[in-house]
Amino acid sequence: xxxxxxxxxxxxxxxxxxxxxxxxxxxxxxxxxxxxxxxxxxxxxxxxxxxxxxxxxxxxxxxxxxxxxxxxxxxxxxxxxxxxxxxxxxxxxxxxxxxxxxxxxxxxxxxxxxxxxxxxxxxxxxxxxxxxxxxxxxxxxxxxxxxxxxxxxxxxxxxxxxxxxxxxxxxxxxxxxxxxxxxxxxxxxxxxxxxxxxxxxxxxxxxxxxxxxxxxxxxxxxxxxxxxxxxxxxxxxxxxxxxxxxxxxxxxxxxxxxxxxxxxxxxxxxxxxxxxxxxxxxxxxxxxxxxxxxxxxxxxxxxxxxxxxxxxxxxxxxxxxxxxxxxxxxxxxxx
Length: 335
Prior knowledge:
The chain contains four helices and 16 strands. By secondary structure, it is mainly beta.
């Protein structure tokens, strides 16, 4: 989560008398479970919109590692490897209280080159290995079968354009609660990428969500402890190869708490959750709701540039989020 100078006129009044004059922006965490990437639950953009003629460029890189194998009488799933995602997002304020955004991303599924590092990390912090020390290292296998038919089968590295998004954000000019305001957002994800390679969906999806943030009441006035929260819904066409188990709707939410440790340094704990679009499946990585916990922070390098980094883990009870992930992003605001 980044603490950023407020530029949107729609929320200036909410924070202009505070000590820090800043608001909280959530970490841009993305669930890199390959099957869930077909739907593309959007990352957060924060509770502010940019002022007219203001803009922001966000370059992000995410990677995640996963391992799961299970077979039942009706289904079989194997997930062993890593997924990498690169994205560029441009936000532009164009009218009072309004902004638009464009995002392009690419995805790669690769062999698990970080397997040994992850085993060492899990051993260091006392987390279960999840059979990592019992299967071959550096393997890529993403397969799903049902009724004797193989729907997905990836064993070689894949790289492809993933998503193209167009979105709008609107900040309510009058918000009755005493926080940093409320932004209503919506976006359209266009067909892009290679669906057979689980890099993108051949269908269209539409998302709508609300984001708000503010001071934690016990620390009101200090701007040292803040929260940010998101609640939304996604509607999508079913992926063709998984249409027998796939649904059309995904509900998602986020909640994060940020501590401003120094003037330019913030530390964040964030919980990202979303429902499963594959509730007709019996396999946990498809049927479970996704629960992802992020630990990270942001450093404001200059008044116009910030760098954020976070480590993500699943909650050990649900298997729809990767075992471990790494998120990095740079935010840049032109003059």
